[in-house]
Design a protein that fits this description.
Helix content: under 10%
Order of helices and strands: EEEEEEE
Radius of gyration: 17 Å
Largest sheet: 3 strands, antiparallel
Distance between the termini: 27 Å
Number of helices: 0
């Protein structure tokens, strides 16, 4: 994994843009994302929001899983592709409720999961 504090892009004409991050790029640390869209500091851009995903695992025999579970959210203004649903707990157990947080650029009203 890699913890990125920020990224600076500088043009040959002397312009400089700062993209703060302060997050892990790691499938096992933080929010488990390995791809990010960074927004330039001080310029208007899409708002960042936190989406809470709540998953209810059924009560049927063998309904739980230890597999990696991924989600894609599609909204009216964009999409979030293939985010692993994981947290510090043992997830996707029979009859349990799990909560996951996904931070992203606002993708509008969610239309598909």
């Amino acid at each position: 994994g890699w913890f990125c504090d920020d990224v600076t892009v500088e043009s040959s004409s002397g312009f400089k843009w700062l993209f703060p991050c302060r997050r892990w790029f790691d499938a096992y640390e933080g929010d488990k994302l390995t791809e990010r869209e960074l927004l330039v500091d001080g310029e208007p851009g899409p708002a960042m929001v936190n989406y809470e995903v709540i998953v209810y695992t059924g009560h049927k025999r063998n309904s739980g899983t230890d597999a990696n579970v991924y989600a894609t959210l599609i909204g009216t203004d964009g999409r979030i592709d293939k985010v692993i649903l994981d947290n510090s707990k043992s997830n996707f157990r029979k009859g349990k409720e799990d909560h996951f947080w996904i931070q992203s650029v606002d993708i509008g009203e969610i239309k598909q999961f």
